[in-house]
Amino acid sequence: MQVNSVSNNSTESSITARETTSTLDKEAFLMLLIEQLKNQDPMNPQDSTEFISQMSQFSILEQLTNLNDTMSELVKTQKVVEATGLLGQQVNVATDDGTVSGEVEKVTFSENGILVYVDGIGYDPENVTEISGSESPVQNEQLTQLNNTV
């Protein structure tokens, strides 16, 4: 006796209602796994080792997604640290009209990104081509102490 899988119209409509993407995310993978389990042949169930393999693949996918999210947050934090390190520094910024030189007055953070301000105008920190800030007295004292201990 042969049992054929039966498709469910509500499942098909929910799958087609999803936004089409070029990559499979963990939600799509889980939906595929659930559909596979729902439509398997009851007289010939899926091999348990294959099922465990698919579950481990899902776990790996989830961990990679979490790692990617963590790395994205780390990159954002690094950009913030770098931008705030420019405060008070003399910089050259490449623009469409040439190069702007001046001291970084402030740094702003918004949904659109990070901006460093030179002479009241905001620039993308990635356009900074040179940093030539003067050392503060505290930095000079720390450098002197470091040189004396070496």
TrEMBL record:
It comes from the Bacteria. Belongs to the FlgD family. InterPro entries: FlgD. Keywords: Bacterial flagellum biogenesis. Residues 1-10 have a biased composition (Low complexity). The lineage of its organism: Bacteria, Bacillati, Bacillota, Clostridia, Eubacteriales. Residues 11-20 have a biased composition (Polar residues). Residues 1-20, 131-150 are annotated as: Disordered. It comes from Pelotomaculum propionicicum. This is Basal-body rod modification protein FlgD. One of its GO terms (biological process) is bacterial-type flagellum organization. The keyword GTP-binding does not apply.
